[in-house]
Structures are given as C-alpha cells and as structure tokens.
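Hello forum,

I keep getting stuck at the same step: I have a sequence, I want structure tokens, and every attempt I make locally crashes halfway through. Rather than fight my setup again tonight, could one of you with a working pipeline run this one for me? It's a single chain of 331 residues.
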Amino acid sequence: MLKLKTTVNISSSNININYITPMFFIGSCFAENIGNKLLSNKYNVDINPFGVLYNPISVKNSIDILLDNYNFVDKDLNYNNNLWFSFMHHSKFSDINKEKCLSNINNQIKSSIEFLKKTKYIFITFGTAWVYKHIAFDKIVSNCHKYPSKIFERYLLDVDTITQDYIELIARLKNYNPDIEIFFTLSPVRHWQDGATGNLISKSILIMAIDRILNKTQKSHYFPAYEIVMDELRDYRFYEKDMLHINNIGIEYIWEKFSDAYINKDTKEIQKEIQKIINATKHKSFNVNSDNHQKFVHTNIESINKLKSKYKYLNFDKEVKHFNSQLNTNK
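Reply #2:
Ran it on my machine without issues. Output:
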C-alpha cells in the first residue's frame, strides 16, 4: 500500500491510566486540551490551577508555590483597569473585588496542594522559551495583563537554565510525593508574534531542555504532541482560522493517540458507557413530555444508577440533575 504520511510511534511503557488515577496538568495548550478531554470523560484530574501558563519558569514558579503551601495576601495583588489581579495568574482569577480575587486564588491553591500530594502523573507542557520579566519587581510574570511592554524585559531562556531549574523542581516534587511520575510535552501551537524563526528557535530550546531533563531524572517521560502535529497532521485543515491553534479534529487525533498509549482497555470500555450518557444530555427534544422522551430520560437515569453502583468513584451529579429536570412528574 502507498504510504501517504509519516507516523509518530509512542514508546511502550508501563503507564496505566484508569478512572482512579489522579493526574495533574499544568502549562500550555496540551495541558488544557487533553486535561479537559479527561475531565469531560470524568477522569480524576486537576488542570492549570493558575490558568494557562506558557513558559517553563512560570510553570516552575507555580508548582513551587504549591509545594511551599503559599497563601496569597494583599501585597501579591495589583490593581489596573478596575480589576485586582496577580501577575502569577491568568486573568480568569481577576476580579473587581480584592477579597474575592484573593479567595479564588487561595481556594484553588489549597485544593491543588491536596491534589498534588496524591497525584500519580503530572503533565507539564512548555509553550515558549520567551519570558517577560517585570522590571520593577525583578520577576518573570506568568501573564502581562495587557500592561505596556516598556515595564517588562523580554528575553529568551537558555537550555541550561531550564534544565537545572527542572532537575531541582523534580527533586522537590519527588520528595513531596515519592510516587509521582512526570510527563513533559511541547505545545504544537506556534507563537507567531516571535516570527517564524523566533518561534522555531524557542521550540528548539524547549525540546533540547526536555531531552536533557529526561536524561538526568528518573520516572520522567515525554509525550510527542508537537511531533504528532508537525509530522502526522501536516495540513492546515487541522488548524483553527488563525492557522496557529489546533482545531477540534486535531485535538481529537492527539487525544486518540494519548488514549491508545496510556489508557487501558477496560477503562476505555467504561469511558464508552460514560460518553453515551454525556451525549444523551445533549439530545434536544421537541416535546420533553412525550412518551418517547420520558422513556429516553428514564433509560438514562437507570444507566447512570447502574454505573454509579458498579463504579462508586464516578460523579454523575450534573447528568442526574439534567435528566431529573426533564422528568414529567404528572405521570
């Protein structure tokens, strides 16, 4: 048969993900896309407790905050455009109310600290080697929050700095949680503001750093999301309209490769049953009180109860609420 594409092979491993496996995702697009795929299928995950992060130093600083059990206080916040915010966090944590902003940040930190203690796998995704250092604070920020570029120093990280920082971080993580295993991934999203050459230099620094980290640490792995997009999905039909971000078809393909490599067969069968129920909640009926639709609702409630009875760790509160709202109580 004529070969029409190159295939990225994922090395065999003893990685065995099931529904009780705690997984922690942090960083750029892979962390969000695959983490949310797992979350939507009711896997046990925590995703980006500081919001989306792009550079390795911001990712490390965020994990250090969790390991230090740090509690944010007033001095850690800034105020601009009628919003309180943290330079360590994505804008989704910003708020017009300072106390609410702090509460949202600290509640998430507290939750993620506890999750990190029991995490089996932590997935770290690097997006860019370019960083922005706040000149007055002398600190690399995770998000510029639309401040003018003149208040930041923008520069490129080097391989040695990233490597040494992560060797130290991994040692801390394994001291905190001896059972943890680390996965690195490289975001396939191109940072076009750096230019074609600047983006390529940045990605090259990141992949070289990851390779060195893997060679110098144990229980560290690499998932080739970047290579899958560049070599298997070498076509703009797998991109969004901006021609930079991967679209749903591309994300689904990476998800299938990830699932085939790390999720066991029995777990996939459970996932199929869960997906049937999730898809059923998206069904739109012209008449929710019709006999056919009421039968449909009762069938799905029964399916949920069977799954909950068999797998007590699964949470179907959202789906139960949905179907209960459609029950015709007059019958």
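Residues 272-324 form one domain. If your local run keeps crashing, start a new thread with the error log.
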